[in-house]
Every structure is written in structure tokens, then in C-alpha cells.
Design brief:
about 900 residues, alpha/beta, 31 helices, elongated, disordered C terminus
Length: about 900
């Protein structure tokens, strides 16, 4: 019974299921989509196959979808006009809903405009030129990365290896030209520059490409960046290998267009690319991707002979079909009508919005459009070795370069990537270029630079070698001798005959107009050296030199004025300041000048006189001490007197001036001091300097102008003969020169700082060549000797003292005169009210002032003594010997009056007192 039931169910299924199927099957909607490719190219043929496989895979997986894409493929024949014509035909005749392609950026530029006008989305997986921006064209979608997305990754590689110059080689197409401005800007951010560019036309034959490569080789450039399509790039590397530019010492970087990604190019092309480093988007390897690659190898198409494998453009073409098929299905379901029934504007807009909203994972990774194009996230750095591309690192926007995909950023830039194998199978990082360095061929001052068979030595050379060791990268160079002036040598850099100049080259403003200098490594400035003469110690008038003539004159006037003020204050009260006119005049001079050695014996009785004298004695003390110190220095310290001190004086005298041959000093003297060329004598060696400055030489020069380091070298062993005088004219010292804008300037400047700030290293270098840097110089410091020859002490140095003494004298004199006028006003008023002439009144006032001030304490005390001598005793006691007493009294009176009036002596001598007192007591 059970078997009968199973048999009946089987009969039912066989009979009725076929009858039900037609009723449940729905009609499939065909959506025409145009495809414009260059089918004669490997990329075009590969993309066509990938898109065919994508359709099969997509609808095999989504068999229930109501829509089906119908790809209408057209050949652009690598021609812009043909691409535009085919696109126009697809839009107007075939009524396509979208166009995939065209293949090149130049073709896409015109087709995008057709799509915008007709509201047909243009979807390109290979037009990666940055000049084509979806933000500028509303109906353009790029299902690929813009070439500008990996510019920062390339610049990071250049910065990691500290390359300062990169030569760009790119094809002369929209694809090649549009990326160059982005590369130049990115290289500037990492301190690199683009000295040369080579534009290769796609139509160049092998001979023309080889000619361009040989030209680049002659520039000694060593780092090249190639931005080309695979077809032109493979030819370039074959010819570069033939030109000998794929050997050790060269470095090559390629953009993603030359990355083979999953399937190598021909073995011959890969052999010529050994050691190349490139950047491409990171594509995560998945099981689906591995299966796809295997199926591509097994699958045979009608044009399979042109396909060697699949690259990134093939994966993007595959994902583009998936994205478009998904979007078409979404638009068809949303409209619930046939897409063909929609207007072209609505159909294109709806389809555009559907594609922009898509997010899915497929063969190329995460498909997500940002501002109309794929968003770049991570790039991988590869190195071509053998027949493979070895991954040596990764780069992303947040972490920069790193060895591992999810590794942390390395602080040491040398560890950011695995060591690549460079051309020539070496791990040594290729230099930026082989520098052609010009060095001046000197005939003297070998301490600074000596050139022997393209080898250099000396202080400047050692500084250069030490600085090169401090650089974070290797530097290759070749030295070339140059015979000529320094200005001519530096001009060779501007003419691109030299890449640098190493030597004792002075940094001045005029030269910086056409070259860039590093920071200086030596002392700056240039000065004048002249012959010295011993000053005459035993000069008869050397005692006058400590003070200037102005100070001598000022001091003498001050002495006289101070003596006069003291005389005025003491004349009416002090008998020592009275007497005949000649005696009073002598007292004025004697008293003031005697204070110079503190030999004055006269007593002063006026308090204002004492005030003035205290201030004046302090002034005299300072003056005498200063004079003594200055004179002692002149008599004990050996002094060297320069023969000339002013370059202008030499020019006025018509004397000759020496300069170092080939230096800039000659032009400086002629331009700034108007020297005639016949007055200038070129000198080469130190011995020439000695001979030119020696007496008796017919071609003797009055002075030599040169850089301070040269002059110090000359003065070291001859400081008793020569001296540096005059101002030190400003320069920036010695430095190394490079082309204007060279990035090597900043690196070398930092290296020079590291060298010069290392005292041990600097002292070692200096002591090797120069004695004047020794801790124990051969002769005394010359500057101290010359400083003793400075100007004599002047008035300004003691101006404060003279002002104080003058103010004190004026105050005392005014106060005394005020007291005199107040105390003698009745008499003075009588004189002033008289009818005499003015001069007669002045004479009367002077006579009144000349009188003794009997009210003075000194005169009161003296009068009391005189009265004791004048008055005789009366009474009986005087009777005996009256005549004798009278005689004695008369004699004593006469003696006292003579002592008081004629000699003006206020204090009686002890002898007078002894002779008179017995008479008074008797």
C-alpha cells in the first residue's frame, strides 16, 4: 500500500509540474549598456573578458533577477574621435542606459560631456586621471582610484630614503600629464625637488626613447619615477636596461599603471625591471579572487592570444559590471515598470543614484563610492625581484609607511620598509645623484684647501667630509678642479656645470642671488692688516699723553677758578690772603695748584671756603690717580702703533692695497672705496703677504684686506710685525654652495651645525691645520696692546666731577656775596646813590670789599691782643723807671704794629710773645 502511494505522487509531479512552471515564470527585462574599449590593447581585451565573466557569475548567483544587462561593446581604436562617435551612437541609436568606459582618460574627457548632456551615466574603471573629477561632472562615475590617491605614498617612499631629487618620466597623454603637478607638490612636502622631466610620446620609436634616456643619464641623475601605461612602460624599461640604467646606483619607482598585480608581464619585460619599487592599491586576497584567477587562465576566449593575465583594471571592470547590474535591478524593482518606459533623464538619474548608494565586497575589495569614485584606503609597496613582486611594506593615510599591514608606524624611517633589492642586485640605497663638485685650485693657504689629483684636503675639506658623515643618506660625488675666481666658480653652478662648490667660499649677498649657501663653518667678516711700529716710550713729552689737551685745558681753568673763589671767600677775613696786588695774585695761583700735591700751608677760616676746598680736593685726588695709572701703563706696557688705521686715508694717499687673488675683495675695494685697479695688488701665498708689507719692497702695500681666518693665520707668528685695524666688514663666513632651491642645503646646514657644535671634533680639526686655535698662543694677545694705544683721557670722563666742583663753588660764592650785601647794604646804597659814573661806583664797591672785615672773629681776637700791648699801667707802681717803661712800651707798640700791618701775619710768633710779655709784667 505504501509503495502505491509513492508511485501516485511521482505520477502527479511528472504530469502537473510542467504545466505549472510557465504560469510562474516572469518575463526578463533586457537593459542595454554600452561598452567603449580599445580592443586592440591588452587592457581592453582583458577588461572585455572580465566583464563577460562578471555577467555570467552575477546572473548565475542572481538567477531570479528580472533584469539582465546586455553589453554592447564598441572599439574606440585608441582614438578620441572614434570613442566619441561610438558613444554618441550608443546613446542616440542603441538607447543605452549607461556606458562603461572609455578606456583612456583622453577619450573619457569627451564622452563624459556627452553623458552629461544626455543624462546617461558614464562609468569608467580605467580613466584614473586626476583632471577627470566626478565632482565636476554629475553623470561621471569612476569605479577606480584616482591617480592622485597614491601620490602621498610615493612621496613617503622618497622621504623615507631621503632622496632630494627625483626625475619624472611620463607619457605625453592626459593620463601621464595630469598627475605631474600632484607629484611635484607632494615631493616638495618631503624636501625633494624635480630638476628634470622627460615626456615620452606613445608614438616614439625605440631610437627616440633611447635618445631621451641617454640624455637623462648624462645629467648624473639616479632616481627616476615612471608614470606610464603598461604598453609604453614595458618598452621603456627594456631600453633603459639596454642604456645601462638598470645597474647598481640607480633607483626606479613606478606607479600603479605598471603594476602587474596578479599575473606577470612577459618574462623579458620582467627581467628588465629587476629592482624596481612600485606602489599600488592593496587588494586583499580572497578565495573568490583565487578562483577567478584560475578560471581566467583556463578560460579561452576568441582573443585570448592578447591576454597574458589580469591586473587591477580587470578586477575593477569585473566589479563595475556587478555594481551596474545590481543598480539596474534596484531601479527596475523600485519603478515596477520597464526601464525603457522611463524618460532618459529619469532613467539616468535613478540609475546614477542607485550606483552611488552601493556598498559590497567583491574581487577588488570593498566597493564604496565617495564623491563619485572609489575611496582609497591602503596601498602596498612592492619590489620586483626575479619573476615576482615582493611586498616590502604598506602605506595608509593614518599610519604612513609600515612593514606590516596592521603594524604600528615606525619612528625610524629606515625601518619603515623591508630592505628592497635595487637594480644591480644590491641592498645599498642608491644616491640621489652623483654630484659634480667644483673646488678652487689654490696656490696658497693650503691650510684651508689643497687640491691634488682630484683629491682635496685641508680644513674646509675635512669639514665637508665630517658633514657628509652626518647626513641621513649616502652622498655620491666627484671633485673637479677649477682655475679662476671664486665668482666664476660659483657661476658654474648656475650654468649647471657643477652641482656644488666645496672650499673656502665666502658667503656674500651678491653671490646668494644665483646659488644657495649652507650655514657658515668659519668666522665671519674681513678686515685690514697693516705694518706696526713701536711707539716711543722715552718721548720727552710722554707725560702729557695720559690726558687730552682739552682735559689739560679744562683742569687748568678749574684750578684758577677754584683759587679765585677761595681768595674771594678769604680776602676780607684772612690776613694770609691780603697784601699787595702781586702777592694776592700769586696767592690765587699758588693756593689752587698747591692742592695738586696737597702742599698748601695757608689756613682757611671761612666755612664756605672749607666746603669748596673739600670738594676740590676730592676732584684733584681722582685726577691725579687717573693720570698716574695711565702714565704707568704707557711707560710699562709695550705698544704697537699701526702705520695706518683708515682705509680711506690709504685711498687718499694713493697707496697700494693687497688682496688675495681671485677673491671678492678686489671688487669690494673698487666699488665701495673707489680704488683704482692699479692700486690693487693680488697676493697668493703667506710669503707674498710678508713681502708686500715689508719695508724696502718696491711693490710694498700699505695694507692688506682679507678674510679674518686668513689674517689670523698670518698674525699667529708675526703679531709683533702686523696688526688688524679698522672696522671688520660683515660677511657670513665660509660656506658650501649649491643650486638655488636645492634640498641638500638644509641637510648640509644641519650637518655642519652638528660638526661645529661638537667641540672635541672641531678643536681636533682646527688644531690639525691652524696654530692660532691653540690654547697657548705663540705671542701675546695683540688686541690688548693695540687697546693701550687708545685715545687719552678726555673731558667727558671727568665731566661729572667738574660739574660738582663748579656747582659747589658757585653756591659758596653766591651765599657769601649775599651775606656781604646784606651786612654792608647802607654803605653800598650810599655808593650806588651817588652821582658818579658806573665805573667809579664799581671801583668804590671794590675798595669797600677790599677792607678788612673787623667784625670777623679773627680780627676781634687779634685786636684784643693788640690792646693789651698798647695800654700802660697808671699809678704808683709805674713811678720807678718811668722813662725806661715808656721807651719799652713804645718799642713794643711799634713791633706789634709792624707785625700786624706790614707782614699781615695774624698769629704772633712765639718769639714775639716771649719778648713782649716780660715788658708787660715788669
Amino acid at each position: 500500500m505504501a509503495n502505491q502511494k509513492h508511485f501516485l505522487w511521482f505520477i502527479f509531479i511528472v504530469l502537473f509540474i510542467p504545466a505549472i512552471r510557465p504560469s510562474t515564470t516572469k518575463e526578463v527585462i533586457r537593459v542595454p549598456v554600452g561598452v567603449v574599449l580599445n580592443l586592440n590593447s591588452s587592457v581592453g581585451a582583458m577588461a572585455e573578458n572580465c566583464m563577460t565573466m562578471a555577467l555570467d557569475d552575477f546572473y548565475a548567483k542572481h538567477a531570479h533577477y528580472q533584469t539582465r544587462l546586455s553589453l554592447l561593446t564598441r572599439d574606440s581604436k585608441n582614438d578620441v574621435v572614434s570613442a566619441a562617435y561610438e558613444a554618441q551612437h550608443l546613446i542616440n541609436i542603441e538607447r543605452v542606459s549607461a556606458i562603461i568606459g572609455p578606456q583612456s582618460s583622453a577619450e573619457a574627457k569627451f564622452v563624459i560631456e556627452l553623458g552629461r548632456r544626455n543624462h546617461v551615466p558614464i562609468i569608467s574603471f580605467s580613466a584614473t586621471s586626476p583632471s577627470l573629477s566626478p565632482s565636476h561632472s554629475s553623470f561621471f562615475i569612476r569605479t577606480a582610484f584616482s591617480d592622485s590617491a597614491h601620490v602621498e605614498a610615493i612621496a613617503a617612499i622618497v622621504g623615507a630614503y631621503s632622496w632630494l631629487e627625483v626625475v619624472l618620466i611620463y607619457e605625453d597623454t592626459e593620463y601621464g600629464n595630469s598627475l605631474i603637478p600632484y607629484l611635484v607638490d607632494a615631493f616638495q612636502q618631503v624636501g625633494a625637488r624635480v630638476p628634470n622631466r622627460s615626456v615620452i610620446s606613445p608614438h616614439y620609436n625605440d631610437r627616440e626613447i633611447l635618445k631621451e634616456l641617454n640624455h637623462l643619464k648624462s645629467t648624473r641623475a639616479r632616481i627616476f619615477l615612471v608614470h606610464m601605461t603598461a604598453s609604453l612602460g614595458s618598452k621603456l624599461f627594456l631600453l633603459a636596461s639596454k642604456a645601462g640604467m638598470m645597474t647598481e646606483g640607480y633607483g626606479w619607482i613606478v606607479t600603479e599603471g605598471l603594476s602587474t598585480l596578479l599575473d606577470p608581464m612577459g618574462s623579458r619585460t620582467m627581467d628588465s625591471m629587476q629592482g624596481v619599487v612600485g606602489v599600488r592599491p592593496y587588494i586583499p586576497m580572497s578565495k573568490e579572487l583565487e578562483d577567478f584567477v584560475l578560471r581566467m587562465k583556463r578560460f579561452r576566449f576568441r582573443k585570448s592570444s592578447k591576454i597574458t593575465g589580469v591586473n587591477l583594471f580587470g578586477l575593477w571592470a569585473y566589479d563595475t559590471v556587478w555594481a551596474l547590474a545590481t543598480a539596474v535591478e534596484k531601479v527596475g524593482i523600485a519603478s515596477r515598470v520597464d526601464l525603457a518606459s522611463l524618460g532618459s533623464a529619469d532613467r539616468g538619474q535613478n540609475l546614477l543614484e542607485a550606483i552611488l548608494d552601493l556598498k559590497f565586497e567583491n574581487l577588488s575589495g570593498n566597493f564604496r563610492l565617495v564623491k563619485g569614485q572609489l575611496e582609497a584606503s591602503t596601498f602596498e609597496v612592492f619590489n620586483v625581484i626575479g619573476g615576482k613582486e615582493r611586498i616590502i611594506g604598506y602605506w595608509n593615510q593614518k599610519k604612513g609607511l609600515s612593514r606590516k599591514l596592521n603594524g604600528a608606524a615606525e619612528l625610524d624611517i629606515r625601518k619603515t620598509l623591508e630592505k628592497p633589492i635595487w637594480p644591480g642586485y644590491t641592498t645599498d640605497i642608491p644616491p640621489t645623484k652623483i654630484l659634480r663638485i667644483g673646488v678652487p685650485l689654490k696656490q696658497g693657504f693650503y691650510e684651508f684647501l689643497r687640491v691634488e689629483k682630484n683629491k682635496i684636503s685641508g680644513f674646509s675639506a675635512d669639514i665637508f667630509f665630517a658633514a657628509v658623515k652626518q647626513l641621513p643618506f649616502s652622498l655620491s660625488y666627484e671633485f673637479s678642479n677649477f682655475s679662476g675666481t671664486y665668482d666664476e666658480l660659483l657661476h658654474q653652478i648656475h650654468l649647471q656645470k657643477y652641482d656644488a662648490v666645496v672650499g673656502d667660499t665666502t658667503i656674500i649677498a651678491d653671490r646668494s642671488l644665483y646659488v644657495d649657501f649652507t650655514l657658515p663653518y668659519s668666522e665671519s667678516g674681513f678686515s685690514m692688516i697693516v705694518l706696526t711700529e713701536d711707539s716711543e716710550k722715552n718721548s720727552l713729552w710722554i707725560f702729557l699723553k695720559p690726558l687730552s689737551w682739552r682735559l689739560w685745558l679744562t683742569t687748568g681753568v678749574a684750578f684758577i677758578l677754584t683759587g679765585f673763589v677761595i681768595w674771594l671767600l678769604e680776602h676780607r677775613e684772612n690776613t694770609e690772603f691780603r697784601g699787595p696786588p702781586q702777592q694776592q695774585l700769586g696767592m690765587i695761583f699758588w693756593f689752587s695748584f698747591s692742592t695738586l700735591v696737597f702742599a698748601h700751608r695757608e689756613k682757611v677760616v671761612n666755612n664756605w671756603s672749607r666746603f669748596v676746598l673739600i670738594i676740590w680736593v676730592f676732584v684733584v685726588l681722582i685726577l691725579t690717580q687717573s693720570y698716574t695709572a695711565s702714565l704707568a701703563s704707557m711707560l710699562t706696557v709695550q705698544k704697537l702703533q699701526p702705520a695706518f688705521t683708515d682705509i680711506k686715508e690709504i685711498q687718499r694717499n694713493g697707496s697700494k692695497v693687497g688682496y688675495q687673488n681671485n677673491s671678492f675683495i678686489k671688487g669690494f675695494l673698487m666699488e665701495h672705496f673707489n680704488f683704482d685697479e692699479t692700486q690693487l695688488v693680488p697676493l697668493v701665498t703667506i710669503q707674498d703677504y710678508h713681502n708686500a708689507l715689508s719695508r724696502g719692497n718696491k711693490n710694498r702695500v700699505a695694507a692688506i684686506l682679507d678674510e679674518v681666518p686668513y689674517l689670523k693665520l698670518l698674525l699667529k707668528k708675526n703679531c709683533s710685525k702686523y696688526t688688524m685695524v679698522g672696522p671688520t666688514y660683515k660677511t657670513d663666513g665660509f660656506g658650501f654652495a649649491f643650486p638655488s632651491g636645492s634640498s641638500l642645503v638644509s641637510y648640509m646646514s644641519r650637518a655642519i651645525l652638528n660638526v661645529t657644535q661638537d667641540k672635541n671634533q672641531t678643536d681636533k680639526l682646527q688644531s690639525t691645520y691652524f696654530d692660532y686655535f691653540d690654547n697657548q698662543p705663540a705671542c701675546e694677545d695683540q688686541s690688548a696692546k693695540i687697546s693701550s694705544e687708545g685715545p687719552s683721557l678726555g673731558v667727558y670722563s671727568f665731566g661729572g666731577l667738574f660739574i660738582i666742583a663748579g656747582v659747589a663753588s658757585m653756591v659758596a660764592l653766591l651765599m657769601y656775596m649775599y651775606h656781604f650785601l646784606c651786612s654792608h647794604w647802607p654803605a653800598l646804597r650810599t655808593i650806588s646813590s651817588s652821582e658818579s659814573r658806573f665805573w667809579e661806583k664799581l671801583v668804590e664797591v671794590a675798595k669797600h670789599f677790599d677792607k678788612k672785615d673787623l667784625t670777623s672773629h679773627q680780627f676781634k681776637r687779634r685786636e684784643s691782643r693788640v690792646h693789651a700791648l698798647d695800654t700802660p699801667d697808671e699809678g704808683p707802681a709805674a713811678a720807678p723807671g718811668a722813662n725806661d717803661m715808656q721807651n719799652n712800651s713804645a718799642g713794643t707798640h711799634i713791633t706789634v704794629e709792624n707785625n700786624l700791618d706790614m707782614n699781615g701775619n695774624e698769629n704772633l710768633s712765639s718769639g714775639h710773645r716771649d719778648s713782649s710779655m716780660p715788658v708787660l709784667d715788669s
